[in-house]
């Protein structure tokens, strides 16, 4: 009972938490080279639930060497054997949905109604989907335009050792996003989970080793950004970094990567718009926008938190959305009545609370929330009051910066042209939502929005087969779908003179 406020945990979760967690390098579980440990907290209670190794540059060296050594082993397997291992890992994740869901909820705070039923199955489906691709990676034969007696063909080769640096908002799911395509394409991986949420990644890689992944194919270096992330992104024997996280960190990784011209996939932040037109199904727009803003405690890179509504439906829309925000039940994610958990960390709670205070201070109106919150029995949890603002001007902090918390803002527009201008008025370009019954308008607006994803009459839909990724400052390198394999492969051209 000490680790949680309400529910009891599965025995395998308790057993996992009771162990002290080292790194995973090859088949071994070494402590960090300098013996340092990081405390892992339950965000609902603020209490320590586990400790993991604080990896260093020396640990990154060891993990990269293990990954390098495993490359010929992994590529020595038949594609069908790699496919089989990926598929079986997907099945293992499905079988352990409750266990992995509890781990993510304890670590991240999100309700188990989301971790166990959305994050875990989507993660499993990633491994199964990319298992299918492992046997379908093919080059082509090319006829040179100048003719001649040449046989020219391409080979699609893995880039090599991939460093995967992931954030804390979808701890288990992000592992699948990176590992699925990287491994299917024949790469080996050094995984650096977020220091706030390392547990499910460690468990997942333990399971991979148990079901027969060769040692060294996936290694885990836990630790923070400075200690473990930076040495990984600067490592001269790492061929590619795949990263999801903050824009400023993406820029540091870009800098660090130049020593050996590492390949990069950068999935950075967003400030996505939701546009509600006068002909929209208003209740559907309210429900969908609510999810767009508040899902995952608002800690989503795709959060559609800048909501612009046609003036003729602004009042009823705002009233409907505000009512839903007031109906949020904050609490421990392990409590089935909870619809919104705490934020991931004290730091994030302070950052988002500061952002809310800046909104109030700069003159925005908090229609719902706007203050701080203390829950009975969970006084030390990292909770933030769900907040909805109006009267937000274009230069206010909350309109410009990624908030990454349960904070939305609603404004009005008069014309479609104005709506598009408002939507594009950001350095980011990750996602967007359009609510309208007019199909012509959907296509017209979708073509004008400068963002990698447009959802119409829905929001936040993801599928393993459908590519996803940003424009502009939101980064580059698609994830999901067939396109996500490309950044993990490099094309080699072979010319043979047959004359
Ligand atoms: P972050 O981008 O600093 O952390 C993400 C990952 O990068 C973690 O594994 C971290 O250890 C690692 N990292 C940090 N500094 C690094 C460095 N110099 N070199 C290599 N790796 C490094 O994000 P953070 O600080 O946890 O959150 C701050 C803000 O970033 C959030 O408030 C949110 O606005 C944004 N964010 C966006 C995410 C997204 O999905 N787009 C995910 C997480 C955060
Ligand atoms: Mg950071």
CATH architecture of the largest domain: 3-Layer(aba) Sandwich
Number of domains: 2
Any idea of the CATH topology of the largest domain?
Answer: Aldehyde Dehydrogenase, Chain A, domain 1
What's the tally of helices?
Answer: 15
> What is the helix content?
25-40%
Strand order of the largest sheet: 12-13-14-11-10-16-17
Descriptive terms for the model:
single chain, 499 residues, alpha/beta, Aldehyde Dehydrogenase, Chain A, domain 1, Aldehyde Dehydrogenase, Chain A, domain 2, 2 domains, seven-stranded mixed β-sheet, six-stranded mixed β-sheet, 15 helices, globular, binds 1,4-dihydronicotinamide adenine dinucleotide, binds magnesium ion
3D architecture notes:
By secondary structure, the chain is α/β, with parallel strands linked by helices. It folds into two domains: 11-268 and 476-492, Aldehyde Dehydrogenase, Chain A, domain 1 (3-Layer(aba) Sandwich), CATH 3.40.605.10; 273-463, Aldehyde Dehydrogenase, Chain A, domain 2. It has helices at residues 11-18, 57-76, 79-95, 97-108, 112-134, 171-184, 199-210, 225-234, 247-256, 282-294, 314-326, 346-361, 397-400, 416-424, 439-448; strands at 37-41, 48-53, 141-142, 150-158, 161-165, 188-192, 218-220, 240-244, 263-267, 273-276, 306-310, 365-368, 387-390, 407-413, 428-429, 433-435, 455-456, 471-472, 475-476, 489-497. A seven-stranded mixed sheet has the order 12-13-14-11-10-16-17, sandwiched between helices. Helix 2 packs across helix 8 (225-234), helix 4 runs antiparallel to helix 7 and helix 5 (112-134) packs parallel to helix 6 (171-184). The N and C termini lie far apart (78 Å). It binds 1,4-dihydronicotinamide adenine dinucleotide and magnesium ion. The site of magnesium ion (MG) has 3 residues, from loops.
């Amino acid at each position: 009972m000490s680790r949680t406020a309400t529910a009891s945990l599965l025995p395998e979760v308790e057993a996992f938490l009771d162990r002290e967690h080292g790194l995973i390098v090859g088949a071994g579980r070494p402590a960090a080279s300098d013996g340092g440990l990081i405390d892992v907290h339950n965000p609902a209670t603020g209490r320590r639930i586990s400790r993991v190794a604080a990896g260093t540059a020396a640990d990154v060296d060891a993990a990269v060497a293990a990954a390098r050594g495993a490359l010929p082993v992994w590529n020595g397997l038949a594609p069908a054997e790699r496919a089989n291992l990926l598929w079986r890992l997907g099945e293992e994740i499905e079988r352990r949905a409750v266990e992995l869901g509890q781990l993510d909820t304890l670590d991240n705070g999100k309700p188990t109604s989301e971790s166990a039923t959305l994050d875990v199955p989507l993660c499993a489906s990633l491994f199964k989907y990319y298992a299918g691709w492992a046997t379908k990676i093919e080059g082509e034969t090319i006829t040179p335009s100048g003719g001649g007696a040449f046989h020219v063909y391409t080979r699609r080769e893995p880039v090599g050792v991939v460093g995967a640096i992931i954030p804390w908002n979808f701890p288990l799911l992000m592992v699948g996003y990176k590992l699925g395509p990287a491994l299917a394409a024949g790469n080996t991986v050094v995984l650096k989970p977020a220091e706030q949420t390392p547990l499910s990644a460690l468990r997942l890689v333990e399971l991979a080793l148990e079901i027969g992944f060769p040692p060294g194919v996936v290694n885990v270096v836990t630790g923070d950004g400075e200690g473990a992330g930076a040495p990984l992104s600067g490592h001269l024997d790492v061929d590619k970094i795949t990263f999801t996280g903050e824009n400023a960190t993406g820029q540091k990784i870009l800098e660090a990567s130049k020593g050996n011209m590492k390949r990069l996939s950068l999935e950075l932040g967003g400030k996505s718009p939701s546009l509600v037109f006068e002909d929209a199904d208003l209740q559907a727009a309210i429900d969908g926008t609510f999810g767009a803003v508040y899902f995952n405690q608002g800690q989503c890179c795709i959060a559609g938190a800048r909501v612009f509504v046609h003036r003729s439906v602004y009042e009823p829309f705002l009233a409907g959305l505000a009512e839903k925000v007031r109906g949020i039940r904050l609490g421990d994610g392990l409590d089935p009545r909870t619809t919104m958990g705490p934020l991931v960390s004290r730091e994030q709670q302070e950052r988002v609370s500061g952002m809310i205070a800046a909104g109030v201070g700069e003159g925005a109106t908090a229609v719902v929330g706007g203050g701080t919150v203390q829950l009975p029995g969970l006084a030390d949890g990292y909770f933030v009051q769900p907040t909805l603002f109006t009267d937000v001007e274009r230069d206010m902090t909350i309109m410009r910066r990624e908030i990454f918390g349960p904070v939305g803002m609603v404004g009005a527009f008069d014309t479609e042209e104005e709506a598009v201008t408002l939507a594009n008025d950001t350095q980011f370009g990750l996602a967007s939502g359009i609510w309208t019954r007019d199909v012509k308008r959907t296509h017209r607006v979708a073509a004008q929005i400068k963002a990698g994803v447009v959802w119409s009459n829905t929001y936040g839909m993801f599928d393993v087969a459908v590519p996803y990724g940003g424009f502009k400052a939101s980064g580059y390198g698609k994830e999901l779908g067939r396109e996500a394999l490309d950044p993990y492969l490099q094309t080699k051209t072979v010319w043979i003179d047959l004359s």
